[in-house]
Specification:
alpha+beta, 49% helix, globular
Amino acid sequence: MTRSLCSIAAPGFDLGLTLNCGQVFHWRAQGAGWLGVIGEEPCYLEQQGDSLLVPAAMAEKVSTYLALDHDMAAIRATLPHDAAMQAAAAAFGGIRIIRQPFWECVATFITSAQKAVPHITQISHTLRQRYGRAVTYEGATLYAYPEPAALAALEESDLRACALGYRAKTLLKTARMVASGEVDLAHIATLPTDIALVELTRLSGVGEKVANCALLFAYERLDAVPIDVWIARILRGTYRKTRSNPAQLKAFAAKHFGPYAGYAQQMLFHHARTG
């Protein structure tokens, strides 16, 4: 049976950029659009100018997931007017910071350590196909990200077989911490950002960089700035912070880019990665 689709407004939004800018790793091009899973629901998305074609039953969920309510004009107005920032914002202002499910985001960024985007994507699909729940959309089989309990029941060797390498041990330990209730990812959403950061770093394989990725891409702390190799290179080169350590780079980014520093870093990251 063909699913009913509807059109929702998405002015100034770029679907391809948003799905391909290094914050989410499982959407696949399908015809004129994209196939993926939001939580455990299969979904087709297609850009049509300033609108999106989406499953009618998921219109509200898609809008929330893609953060179409973010006021990008107001956000861009807060960004600094230096040449690098303005060039990145002009090229990639159509990006939105997706509201990802907490567990999926945390687990995915644990597997991202020292990996390029194509490798992270491959690992995500492998974990989904082997241990996630299968769902279908118009005859296509898709897979939700595996629940913590599903991964917690595995052995480290099972995850190593998914090309996780040393990350297998940390992902398994974190899955067990979350599945047992030792760490409550939903509760973290209620905490102030500084305390949420500390709580996230209790998880195995979650240092400050991964914790900030989770804060930005799952918990919607839009001032969070994950300092990875790309952002460190940009700040040390473009912004002449050559002798700064990661803590100093984070402090500079917070001050220079302001309350939407997370958007600034994502635009700068994608600009550098694709430039």
